[in-house]
Design goal:
heterodimer, A: 327 residues, alpha/beta, Rossmann fold, Alpha-Beta Plaits, 6-stranded mixed beta sheet, 14 strands, elongated, disordered C terminus, B: 317 residues, mainly alpha, 2 domains, two-stranded antiparallel sheet
Chain lengths: 327, 317
């Protein structure tokens, strides 16, 4: 396994026994590679195996097959030596309800001989100062999330694994957490951000992996996943003449309401030149860039586990996914 | 050591544990108070009032006079210790009057207490220690904080051992201190009442404190081990109750000559009481403390092995 990858899985598989004696496959042959640095999104519909994968990486669940590595060291065997470099929030925050937020952090810190001063720093970082002595059960969901993130910061981690960290936060809280995550990524911490909020991943992440039904569907830089925007919307008065002129130059053209959709991987200037040579003057030309939601829905269409897959919403064909795995 | 200190802190911070520790002090204290109160010597005023009340009633009672005469002839049959050179009749009449007046209160006998309420206190302490062990770790499972702890210390067997050691330590300290203080108080009261307690009885009591303390502490570890296996305090209590009832019924209904040997209650009794005698259809059998202790130890080791294996292997939610 490569030393440059912070997280690497190969052929990772997890089966659960069902009550009727059968087996349910949660993760099937997942090859995940997260490079060091930056924020890496981990996307997938509900039940696609994101949390199970994270739980296996952290030693909370045993893989049925396959291998995993953190910082190039095989886990779960090497977990004791790498765990000090990893902070994680898995699913919902889990703390003792009758202890205060600070008491919960103190117990975790003491178990790794982490100095108590780090608790103050972590509490301040997540904005819980003043409420850290309150009982955990009196916290709002947002405060619980903040406490969970504070716990991950105790170890000053090089890798932060966050499973739906903005669940339950108000818009201001979401922005704060996103800024925190972005800041950590910029500070050199590798963040694996598992989320089903596509806008969040698009805004925060530099790279992403999309999984469905426990398999990887696509992985790469977010820009690559979105594609380069090789479809343009062209608004011109004489649509018929424009279509003819563009098709004569080899473009694929289709009507889109009052505009034309023109596909080309070349510079959009060639479109304006072709129209100009035909004596047609366009009033508007826009690059149509698919958003991550479009990519996600296209990739996960037909996945039976999640409630979200549906018809393709975007106006453009799917992006070129250079690293898309054959399914 | 670091993990043990963390677990001791976690134990100390749990309110349910504190409540159970408080009960471990209050219940024996109440029992001790009951023993002291129920064996308090009669005051002369009480005796005078009672005897004067019955004197009038027994004045014409031939049976009373006959009983006093019988007692004077054979005071030992009436449980009366007549000092040498004293008149037996002088010792018997007041005793007869007290008996007729219903002044039956016994003296505080540490030997009797050891075999009766002493056993009860040990069983209560063991039950409470078991609850401490169960609720301590049951809360970790119920809140899901177990997974959080494993994110900081992924070596599961270390976590398991640290929690078990914390429960054992708390059980030993609580039961040891409570039992020692309990007997010290009773011993002081007995001495204050000029009641002598033989050295042999004190040796028995010391043995009872050691075995009782061990039983309570290990019961705590047993409760902990079962909760680590079932991952729920309620499930542990349900299984324990069901197992005790089912085992007792099963053993009682089995056509075995010596089935009672395997009853949990008999084995606990044998361990606490330095051996017990029980009766089968045809004979009287003796169960030594070592036999009873071995039986309990096998159960505990079985629970520990099973639950540590389960904790190491199973996924943690």
């Amino acid at each position: 396994m490569s030393g440059e990858l912070v997280i690497e899985t190969s052929g990772l598989r997890k089966e659960f026994r069902t009550r009727r004696g059968g087996h349910r496959v949660a993760v099937q042959g997942l090859d995940l590679a997260v490079p060091a640095g930056g924020v890496h999104g981990f996307l997938g519909p509900n039940g696609s195996g994101k949390t199970t994968t994270i739980r296996m990486l952290l030693g909370l669940a045993r893989p049925t097959k396959g291998s995993m590595a953190l910082f190039g060291q095989s886990v779960p065997k090497a977990l004791p030596s790498v765990m000090d470099r990893v902070g994680a929030v898995v699913e919902s925050p889990k703390f003792a309800p009758n202890f205060s937020g600070r008491q919960n952090l103190q117990l975790l810190a003491r178990s790794r001989s982490i100095p108590q001063t780090r608790i103050d720093q972590a509490v301040e970082t997540v904005g819980l100062t003043g409420r850290d002595h309150d009982r955990y059960k009196s916290y709002s969901l947002g405060m619980k999330q903040r406490l969970a993130i504070a716990a991950t910061l105790l170890k000053d981690p090089e890798l932060l694994i966050l499973d739906e960290p903005t669940n339950g936060l108000d818009p201001a809280g979401i922005r704060e957490i996103r800024d925190t995550i972005r800041g950590l990524g910029e500070a050199g911490v590798t963040v694996l951000l598992s989320s089903h909020i596509l806008a969040e991943v698009q805004q925060v992440c530099t790279s992403a992996t999309i999984i469905g039904n426990g398999r990887m569907l696509a992985s790469g830089k977010v820009d690559d996943l979105l594609g380069s925007g090789h479809v343009h919307r062209v608004t011109v008065d004489d649509q018929a003449a424009a279509t003819a002129a563009l098709e004569a130059k080899g473009f694929t053209v289709s009507r889109d309401g009052t505009s034309l959709r023109v596909e080309t991987e070349a510079d959009p200037a060639v479109i304006t030149r072709a129209l100009g040579e035909a004596g047609l003057w366009l009033s508007e030309i826009t690059a149509v860039r698919p958003d991550l939601e479009t990519v996600f829905l296209e990739l996960t269409a037909g996945e039976t586990l999640g409630p979200t897959p549906g018809p393709t919403l975007g106006p453009t064909p799917g992006p070129t996914l250079g690293e898309e795995k054959a399914r | 050591m670091r993990l043990l200190l963390v677990e001791l802190t976690r134990l100390r911070w749990r309110r349910a544990v504190l409540a159970l520790v408080a009960l471990s002090i209050l219940i024996p204290a109440f029992v001790a108070w009951g023993e002291i109160h129920n064996t308090r010597p009669y005051t002369q005023q009480e005796i005078d009032r009672a005897t004067s009340r019955v004197k009038a009633e027994v004045g014409q009672d031939k049976f009373f006079e006959r009983n006093v005469r019988q007692c004077a002839k054979h005071p030992e049959r009436f449980g009366i210790d007549v000092p040498e050179g004293s008149d037996p009749a002088a010792a018997c009449e007041p005793q007869m009057l007290r008996d007729y007046a219903g002044l039956y209160r016994e003296d505080l006998s540490l030997q009797r207490v050891k075999e009766q309420s002493g056993v009860g206190v040990i069983v209560v302490l063991a039950g409470l220690a078991m609850l401490i062990g169960a609720t301590f770790v049951g809360a970790d499972w119920a809140s899901g904080s177990m997974s959080n702890q494993l994110l900081f210390e992924p070596r599961r067997l270390r976590v398991y051992a640290a929690k078990a050691a914390a429960v054992l330590l708390v059980g030993l300290v609580v039961s040891g201190v409570v039992l020692s203080v309990w007997w010290a108080v009773l011993g002081q009261v007995a001495a204050h009442r000029d009641l002598t307690t033989s050295a042999a009885t004190w040796a028995d009591i010391r043995g009872s404190v050691v075995r009782g303390g061990l039983l309570a502490a290990l019961a705590g570890v047993g409760g902990y081990a079962m909760t680590m296996l079932f991952r729920s305090t309620v499930a542990t209590l349900g299984v324990l109750f069901g197992t005790v009832v089912a085992t007792t019924l099963l053993i009682a209904s089995l056509p075995l000559e010596n089935a009672q040997r395997w009853l949990p209650s008999n084995n606990i009794g044998a361990w606490v009481l330095d051996g017990i005698d029980y009766y089968t259809n045809n004979s009287q059998e003796h169960l030594s403390k070592w036999d009873g202790g071995l039986y309990l130890l096998v159960l505990l080791v079985g629970a520990l092995v099973l639950s540590s294996w389960s904790f190491r292997r199973r996924d943690v939610p």
